[in-house]
Amino acid sequence: MAPRLMKILFITSNRLGDAVISTGVLSALQARYPSALFTVVCGPVAAGLFEPDPRCERVITMEKRRHDRHWLDLWRQCVRTRWFLVVDLRGSLLSLTLRTRRRLIVRGGRRDGRKVEQLGQALGRNQAPKPRVWVSDEQERSARALLPDGKWLALGPTANWDGKIWPPERFAALAEGLKAQDLRPVLFYGPGDAEKERAKPVLEALPDALDLGGNRELGEVAALLRRCALFVGNDSGLMHLAAAAGTPTLGLFGPSRMSEYAPSGENAFALSAPGTEGEAALMGLSASEVLDVARAILNGKAEAFRT
After folding, report:
1. How far apart are CA 70 and CA 91, in angstroms?
2. From CA 191, how far away is CA 112, in angstroms rounded?
3. Structural domains in the chain plus CATH codes
4. CA distance 260 to 246
5. How far is 164 from 160, CA to CA, in rounded Å?
6. What does the alpha-carbon distance between residue 229 and residue 247 come to, in Å, rounded to a whole number?
7. By its UniProt entry, which Pfam families does this protein fall under (predicted)?
8. Half-sphere exposure of 84 (CA within 13 A, CB side)
């Protein structure tokens, strides 16, 4: 009789940034169970993160519905499967109702330390699992065509709320200051009119910049970011994606918590506005300060800002 396939259910965040942070956990599980097939549950904005993964048998997108009916929909899609392992980073009741040999459930709530380290500790790992990205061959080819070999400066001038956005004119000043390093700016932002509007002032201030924002597959965005010498951007899902892709990444923090959500990767750096964490305004972070750190990263002299 043929052996039963080992199936693992991985429930992660609806938000892109948290979903990116969780990819290190998924990658560690894939290394531990090399013959397993994975089903990933996430929000629609994060689905493209997992779709290029060859070990991912299925991506279930969970769109929020009234009265929490999205959890009932998910239960219906999962209840007939006998799982080898259910990993629930949402701490939901659903994971307690599924047939599985083992469960790993991470409860919510704010904890001390970086989010990536919190996940590693909750899952019993001594070392925080580094986030990663998956890119298809087609996405890689598309990125090479859009960004030929050169020195590109990736800018991420948007975020999910205005308090996390560094002033647009300072992004423009940063790009002008890095022209001495022969860096040409490329703007990235997410889909939708609100994202486009937030990016518009920077696009207008930098007429020579490439506009690569909008509705692109996340794997393609990751491949594009890998072709950039540096990413500078607000605390956002895009910032976490850049760091996971291995791009030297400088995240800018004001009212959001750098101690918890600093980017994680081999070349991840962060800079916080002066003031009390959670209350500091990004207006307090000057273009010259960010420019100095960006130059230090490019010159390999920014260890004080490494996360």
Report:
1. 15
2. 32
3. 7-122 (3.40.50.2000), 139-305 (3.40.50.2000)
4. 20
5. 8
6. 7
7. Glyco_transf_9 (PF01075)
8. 13
Model confidence pLDDT, tens digit, residues 60-109: 999 888 877 899 999 999 999 999 999 999 989 899 999 999 999 987 65
pLDDT of residue 4: 64
* CA distances from residue 90 to 10, 105, 106, 243 in whole angstroms, order as listed: 10, 8, 6, 23
- Within the chain, strands assigned E span 7-11, 37-42, 56-61, 83-88, 100-105, 152-156, 184-187, 210-211, 230-234, 249-253, 268-272
For 70-93, b where at least 16 C-beta lie within 10 A, e where not — what string? bbeebeeebeeeebbbbbbbbebe
Position 9, amino acid: L
pLDDT value of residue 110: 58
Q: What are phi and psi of 48, to 5 degrees?
A: -65, -15
Structure tokens at 176: 């002008």
Q: Are 182 and 151 in contact (CB under 8 A)?
A: yes
pLDDT digits (tens, 9 = 90+) for 116-167: 888 888 777 777 789 999 999 999 999 999 999 889 999 999 999 999 999 9
SS3 per residue for 138-168: HHHHHHHHHCCCCCEEEEECCCCCHHHCCCH
Between CA 258 and CA 277 the distance in angstroms is 8
Q: Is 245 left (phi over 0), alpha (psi -120 to 50) or beta?
A: alpha
From residue 55, alpha-carbon distances to 38, 140, 290 in Å are 6, 18, 39
> pTM of the entire structure?
0.94
CA dist 190 and 95 (Å) reads: 31
Q: How far is residue 34's CA from residue 162's CA, in Å, rounded to a whole number?
A: 43
What are the Cα distances from residue 235, in Å, to 131, 156, 241, 252?
A: 16, 9, 11, 6
The reported pLDDT for the residue numbered 276 is 85
